[in-house]
Design a protein that fits this description.
five-stranded mixed sheet, six-stranded mixed sheet, mainly beta, 38% strand
Length: 422
């Protein structure tokens, strides 16, 4: 269940409501375009049950300005806006008939958002679910990593329930165009222990990973000093679970390990066996871990500076996106690294011209999609990686497929002097 209090928009000065605009879905390409206000640093789909025909939602966090910079050293607090966009029911063949819109937003004061992850399944409720007074049916559970070193767990309601609650509360005059809420999290995940629970020990939290198999009761997070912390969300231990005066929970990890010599950039859980995770750090190392024996990694690979990784369900290896600052000439792009089970060398999936910031994979299509610093989005069809792909000689089985290229240009408004918009 979710309880929300609707307040006037806080002084997040640069998140102007006029920025939350969208275009109608394209009739032929079936794609959607909307403007969230700034460079996007965290984005996550909200999972919905298959066959429910429910609207699709995506959680997004962006910078307040186009030129904002965030320091990785030390802890930082400040205003941030967590946006939830409604994209409507998306069909495979027809796309969505409705224009995207900002369902609501959550104002926070814990600094910038580095990563966010929804609970993979089991948290979505039907909008008609009956609850107590002032409580709404739940859309999903969202874990958010902030620059103040904390991980907050939010219980997000369905947008229609929230708007109905707003209409009941606002009786004088029209309600605001966009719902910006100040909410209370259901749980705060913090490193340390009851006797020594300072979040400054490990620095900022940069990456999150939710246990992919049911009951999804474990959550992993990576921090600036190279620490990886594991929480048991269903723990009843008095040493790990503390009830706060405001009714929320504070949870401490059941295990911490120093996985890297510098910041942990990304964590991924193995989808076929939850005993295995992989971490990538700023020390240019990628390490595979067995959670049953954490005294040393299964495999440690030192390569380029990794930005994000994707672990597809069928394979015993990961697809890595990298920064081009350490890449050798001609090897900048996307690589597949075997965990050591098959033992073949790194496989070059697709070349890229610039730093690849984001990568995502499809378990069913055996493909990955990646976006880089040049504004290009590329999809690559993976070969059969259960065997050594270097032995595949047919070019048709090793070819990558480009999808789209996006370029940002300056638009000058005619008739208005001194005004330029992006």
């Amino acid at each position: 269940a979710t309880e929300l209090c609707v307040h006037p928009p806080p002084p997040c000065a640069h998140f102007l409501p006029c920025r939350f605009n969208a275009l109608q879905p394209h009739e032929e390409r079936l794609d959607m375009t909307f403007f969230v206000g700034g460079p996007i640093w965290a984005m996550e789909w909200c999972p919905t049950p298959e066959g429910s025909m429910a609207p699709q939602y995506v959680a997004i966090s962006c910078n307040q300005g186009m030129d904002d910079r965030h320091s990785l050293v030390g802890l930082h607090t400040g205003p941030a806006l967590l946006q939830l966009w409604e994209l409507g029911p998306i069909q495979q063949d027809t796309g969505s008939a409705t224009k995207p819109g900002l369902a609501y937003a959550i104002a926070t004061s814990h600094g910038c958002i580095w990563d966010m992850k929804f609970c993979p399944s089991g948290a979505w409720e039907f909008p008609a679910t009956r609850r107590k007074s002032f409580q709404m049916s739940r859309l999903g559970l969202l874990a958010v990593a902030f620059s103040d070193g904390k991980v907050l767990l939010y219980s997000l309601p369905h947008a229609q329930d929230l708007h109905a609650y707003r209409r009941a509360q606002v009786t004088d005059g029209p309600s605001p165009r966009h719902a910006i809420c100040k909410v209370q999290c259901v749980a705060t995940l913090q490193v340390g222990s009851i006797q020594a629970g300072s979040p400054s020990e490990c620095g900022q939290c940069f990456s999150l990973a939710w246990m992919p198999t049911k009951p999804h009761h474990q959550l992993a997070a990576g921090f600036y000093d190279g620490t990886v912390a594991l929480w048991n969300l269903s723990s009843k231990s008095l040493l790990q679970r503390i009830r706060q005066p405001n009714g929320s929970l504070k949870l401490y990890p059941f295990h911490c390990l120093l996985a890297h010599d510098h910041a942990v950039r990304n964590i991924q859980w193995c989808k076929s066996n939850s005993n295995f995770i992989v971490t990538a750090g700023n020390d240019r190392k990628i390490k595979f871990w067995d959670l049953r024996r954490l005294h040393e990694p299964i495999n440690s690979i030192k390569r380029f500076l990794s930005t994000e990784i994707a672990w597809l369900l069928p394979y015993s290896g990961i697809t890595v996106a990298q920064d081009n600052c350490y890449a050798s000439f001609g090897l900048c792009g996307i690589h597949y690294l075997d965990a050591g089970y098959l033992g073949f060398r790194a496989y070059f999936v697709a070349p890229r011209k610039g730093t690849v910031w984001s990568i995502s994979g499809s378990d069913w299509l055996n493909s990955i999609a990646a976006g880089d610093a040049t504004g290009e989005l590329v999809a690559a069809m993976m070969p059969d990686l259960s065997v050594n792909p270097h032995n595949v000689k047919r070019p048709s089985e090793r070819r990558f497929v480009g999808v789209a290229a996006v370029h940002l240009g300056r638009l000058h408004l005619h008739g208005v002097e001194g005004i330029a918009q992006y």
